[in-house]
Design goal:
Immunoglobulin-like; 5-stranded mixed sheet; binds dinuclear copper ion
Amino acid sequence: MHKYEKIWITLGTSALALFLIILGISAVHGGHTPAASGIETINPEHVRDDARFKEPGLVKSKSSDHDYDLYFVASAFMYEPGEVEIPVGSTVKVHVTSPDVVHGFQVVGTNINMMAEPGLISTYEMTFDETGEHLILCNEYCGVGHADMTSKLIIVD
Ligand code: CUA
């Protein structure tokens, strides 16, 4: 065999092997994406059995990086709680889930705009620096009562 031919065959084989290795690695990692991105799951049929969502609302956080956890259940066609008071200056981690269909969870005047999906808990952390009211709206069409789905965050002094 010619010397250059040998080199090219070796290079070609190595490139193919490398390609297959990379493909294998990405396939393995790709399969674990949901867990790695930190999405929490919940059985949608047992949302009410979960202590956090039994009487959803504002609770003092056990974590040091935020002051409160705020739990919401979005269902057809309401949010629970229907209104929440938050002390101004607090950092709040909002957790939302749905026991039925996909709902939206948009807090007007903030960057909070998530989906409430059955089987998943969506979270968003933010600090409320100003007093005032923020309407919560459903921005995913969910049925006849879609437009009636509202709640309210009231930031108090
Ligand atoms: Cu819930 Cu639209």
